[in-house]
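Good morning,

Both structures are done.
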Amino acid sequence: MRANSSATVIFSPVIPTPRSGRPGGGLWWGLLGVAAFSFTVPLTRVAVAGLSPLFIGSGRAVVAAALAATALILTRQRFPLGLQWARLAVVGGGIVVGFPLLTSFALTSVPASHGAVVIALLPAATATAVVLRGHERPRAAFWLATAAGAAAALGFAFAQPGGFGQLHWSDLLLLGAVVAAAIGYAEGGLLARELGAWQTVSWALVLAAPLMLLLAVWTMIQQPPSGTPAQWAAFAYLGVVSMFLGFFAWYRGLAIGPMTQVSQIQLIQPVLSIAWAALLLGETLTPTTLIGGAAVIACAGIAVRVRLRPTSPPPRP
């Protein structure tokens, strides 16, 4: 089957093989992507202090889509074929529409340290989405390390000032953002093996651009944006790096794989996010953060070292 074959279906049992690369190359690319994403929560918190959350969630996607369209045109990329467009819609719905909008609204009422709960749950959610997608079957040791890492990440994130609290609408928005991003990551990682890493996120951004542009224009009419230079700088980072450049590295890492292992690199993202929140927003950085961060990183290291159970080849027709 060709890379751009229209016979590729959304949930086909035929899964593209991982891209070749250096051993552990997927982990290093994933780490680079996570480092870029780790600023997303604290900088979103900075931006929503003066800009509308709907404008931030939609406007950052419009900025990224403009960059994506330019890159696709300049490099003369071939159009996706057939049901690859439907799969791109799944990716766009998760990472372009769902995650940015839901987190922007949630972070209007909770601190960045609380928002790190989203990142703490993403690795386990992404690994689950990959397994449900029918691609990889990790051993039990992997799931034990994943569960321990998620528990450690949640524990230390909730232990931060502002971390505790009763379940309310912001927590439900954060949970929805986790589900949306996990689905987008899993499908995008598979599609990146066919279209390429940066091409996948670029086409997903272009596909979602009309909706996000409509939302951005509508919110600008309703509430003209007015922010400080720092808030606009945070918005620029969210559009250029969080929504565009960061996915270059992240999807390349997922494409090299194994996806379930690379996804566990995200376990260190809440550690970095809370550290940036302390430096940029003045939120308290306590010894609990250091201890919890060490536990999270240790669990991530165990998870990525667990070898996947070899999969049997599909039966011949």
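Second structure follows.
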Amino acid sequence: MTATVPCQLVHRAAVAETFLTGWSRIADDRFSVSAQWPRAHGLHVSADRSAYEPLLVVETVRQSGTLIAHTEYDVPLGHHFVLQEFEVDTFPRHLAVGAVPAEPVVEVAFTEVQYRGRRPVSARYTADVVRGGDRVATAHVAFSCTSDAVYRRLRGGRTPATVSALPVPPALPAAAVGRALPEDVVLAPADRPDRWQLRVDTAHPVFFDHPLDHVPGMLLLEAARQAVWARTPGGGLPVSFRIAFHQYAELDEPTWIELSEGSDGTVQVVGRQGDSEVFACAVGGAE
């Protein structure tokens, strides 16, 4: 493959943030999506350029589902996609950066597609990410999609032009959350060690590749990743995420990230705005 798919098919503005290069249908509701991962990236490659980040896998799987929804299920461009659930297990031993960009294949199977008329309004899909015959990750995703007109009614007039993010609070030290650059830190200190305020920098070129009227899901996942790292510095990179998104995280309200021990060896990370739970995520480390 020598070019990416059109950016709009994966809801990205920058070619550099578009990781997919093609796709094909292999059976009813089953598809093969090709991707290319850069050897250097400001967020999704380790600072020493030795390993791909698990959240690069998440973004690749997200893009794959969006691409297939548009191209194979005729969801119109301009429709809004809302992630509801995202479960992923990654295998870091297969995430090393090599001498050339990695070219994984995402094997996608759509299930439980719900239609209104002839167009899907929600679906689930599974994804197996394979690189050179090795399984890099498995994922299960649920999402809904809606027209722009319906979305605007749901959002009550909130648009990127009418909603401004809160001032960005001072960041934790980059090393404390496993990041090299202060600009990539998404947590600010709060009133206790297991609680932080989310830093929402709408100028960040990856999280806000284009203007949004809410906090994107990938930023919330990064907050969960950094919270686990902050709690146990040097404890290892989180490799699995099971997140449920309950409602939109608004730009003009503070979001609080809270952490607690899970009963199954995972760490539970919750995002709250006011009295409402925005998301809940079980985060697991390498065994």
